[in-house]
Design goal:
single chain; 122 residues; alpha/beta; 25% helix
């Protein structure tokens, strides 16, 4: 059985609290998580989430990846990112961050192999 994905305990403006730690933005996967530092991959609101942002998630073989695109949904997602996720056989859901937290927690609570990127601000 796959390791459990960490629970998100709170989302507030500028902070994602999880059972794996508290971060400004979060990368979560079955068995762990860490802060999501956009500087690592050169991510910006446009064009948005890059393939390099999800590659670490894919290393943990999630069945589904939830992308939280901000509380005002201002973070885009590159087409190439969606294609990469699908090439790995995972499903992807792109949601406003509060909805993404709810969806992710439901899936994780059901024991699904779920991963997420959660943007905590706009």
């Amino acid at each position: 059985m796959a390791e459990a994905a960490p629970e998100i305990t709170e989302l507030s403006w500028g902070q994602v609290s999880t059972t794996a730690g508290t971060f400004r933005d979060a990368k979560l996967w079955p068995g762990g998580g860490r802060g999501w530092d956009w500087n690592e991959t050169g991510t910006s609101h446009e064009p948005g989430i890059r393939p390099a942002d999800v590659s670490e998630l894919l290393d943990h073989d999630p069945q589904l990846i939830v992308l939280g695109c901000g509380q005002e949904r201002r973070l885009g997602v590159m087409k190439e990112t969606l294609a990469l996720i699908e090439q790995h056989g995972a499903t992807v859901e792109v949601l406003e961050s509060r909805a993404a937290v709810e969806r992710y927690n439901t899936l994780a609570g059901d024991g699904r192999a779920v991963a997420a990127l959660i943007h905590s601000t706009c």
